[in-house]
1-phosphofructokinase (Streptomyces ficellus), 312 residues
Amino acid sequence: MILTVTPNPSLDRTYEVPALERGEVLRATGERMDPGGKGVNVSRAVAAAGHRTVAVVPLGGAPGALVAELLADEGIQVAPVPLKGHTRSNIAVAEPDGTLTKINAPGPRLSPVESEAILSMVGAYSPAADWIACCGSLPRGLGPEWYADLVTRAHGHGSRIALDTSGPSLLAALRARPDVVKPNAEELAEAVGRPLTTLGDAVKAAEELRQAGAGAVLASLGADGQLLVSAAGAFYGYAAVGAVRSNVGAGDASLAGFLAAGGEGPAALAAAVAHGAAAVQLPGSEMPTPSDLDPSAVTVTADIPLDRDLSE
């Protein structure tokens, strides 16, 4: 079972319009509603792959009730933590050429009691979890050390932690020694405080995060593939991809594939790449099922072309 923790989930509404024109009344040609948040997306991808998952989510108000309902519809067990405030609602406007304009709400401010309730809920499910994926930004009311506290407590239960966050929250959590961290290229550069222009730069940055406390680093590099740097060495994975329809949730799908495949080694990296490649070829935040995966398109190697320029 993979347990996910999403401190700041959302109800995501997407509207399709012929064109985005400021100051005009726009008539949508299509709309959809999805449960949102990085950890939520990991649970959705794990469920789509046919594995058991439990999603710990703080939920409040009518938007929170809808998030719980939508997750249950996808076969995901929800472990809700009641909030006094309302779960945030995010808006996305999609144009025919693929341009996506997003408005993300800040979300509710959590009280110390609500913060502790989330940590207690995680503790209740930790013994049954093969992995705990802690993902996304922190809502108002939770300090940057919150993830570090969660990692320390989960390790006390003997659980393995995968952390997907950025900025001060990532740096603070490294001291608690999470088992895996999953930055993208921009977040990896931010963590080490310098730009990354080659695969070699990304490998060196990942090694620095390991020195700072991460057990392993799974770095999503967009069209440039993915890196896994751990005590076993450094591996590079990439896949041939056809038309890209949407990159929303692709990194979350990658993490789900990685953890579902055991969360370590080249085989797990290959699963991460396959899931990410499948996700970008699906519409919106739709998560890949086993029939969408093409393992034959994936290459994983320890012979990393360190001089290769990063395109993103």
Observations:
- The CA atoms of residues 152 and 176 lie 6 Å apart.
- The mean pLDDT is 94.
- Residues 193-312 form a domain with the UDP-N-acetylmuramoyl-L-alanine:D-glutamate ligase fold (CATH 3.40.1190.20).
